[in-house]
Amino acid sequence: MAILYIAPESSPLVHAAAAALLYLHIGAGSVGILSGAAAFVFRKGTPLHRLIGKVFVISMLIMSGIGACVAPFLPTPERASVIAGILTFYLVLSSWMAVKHKPGQLGRFDYGSLPISLGVVAASAYFFWLAMQNPRGMLDRQPGAAFVMFMIIGSLAAVGDLRLILSRGVTGATRLARHLWRMTVALFIAANSLFLGQPQVFPKAVQKSGLLNVPALLILSLLLYWLGHVGYGAYKRRRQHKAAGLQGT
Question: Which residues contact 204 (CB under 8 A, 6 or more apart)?
Fold first, then answer.
């Protein structure tokens, strides 16, 4: 596991601060993954679900914020981790704002979200280009494919941000889908960072079994299920409203 390098001659206070950041990052990430998984289990909209959601948001913001700030100062700077941290922080915060705002409401944060998502796309494209200059297609020991994933996620987010601004807010199923997919993708990035990004923390037997791919596949499956559920629910409501309108004529 890469850790922040501190010169041996540094004061004990500096060493203690670096250790605190490391354990806070690991602890917040662990809580974020567990609370994110729990959020899928408990019924949406209940007080318990909202409480778990708050725990998820706080822990994920701490984890991703530390990761993005520390990654450039590792012994081998990890630009992929910088992008992953910024993107995760942005996805969690924009997802939370989607349900914090009233339906059809547009806040100051929403205007600033588009430059962030576009910035993620631009930086990811540049880092991918740098990776392609390497014969192995790597940048900071990270595969260039990671930046392609960030470009795709950032582009989808940017389209959603532009739609939000042009529509002066979102309502109904669109608002719920915005909240849902951003939270879930943030959880997907965090899970990948642990299970696929740090396989050495797991027993050798687990590493060779392919089980480390299961969390990411499960999260993506849940995302597709819930997006389909939300879309089907919106379709049914439109059909019911249309039928009620025809009966009233």
Answer: none
For the record, the structure tokens of 83 come out as 């992008």
Q: Which residue shows structure tokens 């299920």? A: 225
Which residues fall within 8 angstroms of residue 189, CB to CB, at 6 or more apart? Answer: 84, 87, 88, 91
H/E stretch holding 139 reads strand 138-139
pTM metric for this prediction: 0.88
Distance CA 183, CA 59 (A): 13
Distance from C-alpha of 23 to C-alpha of 66, rounded to nearest angstrom: 11
Q: Determine the residue type at 97.
A: M
Structure token digits, residue 34: 């567990």
**Distance, CA of 88 to CA of 13 (rounded, Å):** 30
Calculate the CA 22 to chain-centre distance. Answer: 20
Q: Which tokens in the block code for residue 18?
A: 């670096």
Nearby residues of 175 by Cβ (< 8 Å), 6 or more positions away: 98, 99, 103
In order along its 249 residues, the chain shows pLDDT tens digits of 455 566 666 777 877 887 788 889 989 999 999 999 898 888 877 888 889 999 999 999 999 999 999 888 887 788 999 999 999 999 999 999 998 888 888 888 889 999 999 999 999 999 999 999 999 999 988 889 999 999 999 999 999 999 999 998 888 888 989 999 999 999 999 999 888 888 888 888 888 888 898 988 999 998 898 888 888 887 777 777 777 666 655
Vertex 31 angle, CA 225 and 179, to 5°: 40
C-alpha distance across the termini of the chain, in Å: 67
- Beta-bridged to residue 36, according to DSSP, are none
Rounded to whole angstroms, the Cα distance separating 238 from 178 reads 19
How far, rounded to the nearest angstrom, does the alpha carbon of residue 84 sit from its chain's CA centroid?
A: 8
Are 196 and 213 in contact, with CB atoms under 8 Å apart?
Answer: yes
